[in-house]
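User: Show me a protein chain along with its predicted structure.
Assistant: Here is one chain, sequence first, then structure tokens.
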Amino acid sequence: MLSILVGCRTGSDFQDPRGPRYAAGTIVPCRAQAGDTLRTVTFNIAFSREIDRALEVLSSDPGVHCADIILLQEMDAPGTAKIASALGMQYVYYPALFHRGKKKEFGNAVLARWPVVEDAKIQLPHGSRFAGTHRTATAATLRIRNAVVRVYSTHLGTLADIGPAHRRSQLRTILADAERYRLVIIGGDMNSGVVGEVAAEAGYAWPTRSGPKTTSFGTWDHVYVKGFRIPGAGATGTVRDARGSSDHLPVWVMATLETHRQCTDPRCASR
């Protein structure tokens, strides 16, 4: 029976925490960066199938155009590189697994209009009950003027993969890594509209909590921030037309650095 189940698995994990790893890109200014307010976008581009259509959205929709940080899920390496090059951003991408059916790797990427000074793959607990594969988060530490910001792009387990308790455990794993940092942005496809309660309990702001549906199933794409002030009305939004690029809608958040808490330590550990 075990051999049958293993044979039916749709993918295999990349278990080495060091890779595969892809990182490159050249930063090209897109607009005058206003004060200490950052625009972060999260977008699950389903299986990286419609990269050109996704680029149309990311380069033209006023809510996501000229974003400082873009968090992408279900990405492959060529798609990540193409988007970063077209938008003038640095990127780091760690695939989580190789999908046998699609015959390519998929994972999470962080694109930034600020220098990436450190990055890592965070391996999440609780494999899929059917596929046996595990989820990950891609972490990047950004130098933004005199501040250091830790950013995570993640894709938590689906409702078929794991139960709610395990999904909360996956998010707690990311929060545990983020404890060392004063300024944190976590975003991605959470496959849940309520798992963000875990981040809120840990002191994070949850600006996307009451947003509209981002998939036909619910409001599953979210951003959580620590050490930032949400400017108020109009600080978050959902792109209403993904132009056929995905079954998810991009979500964006504006967040202002709490400048009195900035830290110049590259790891910006809490003290």
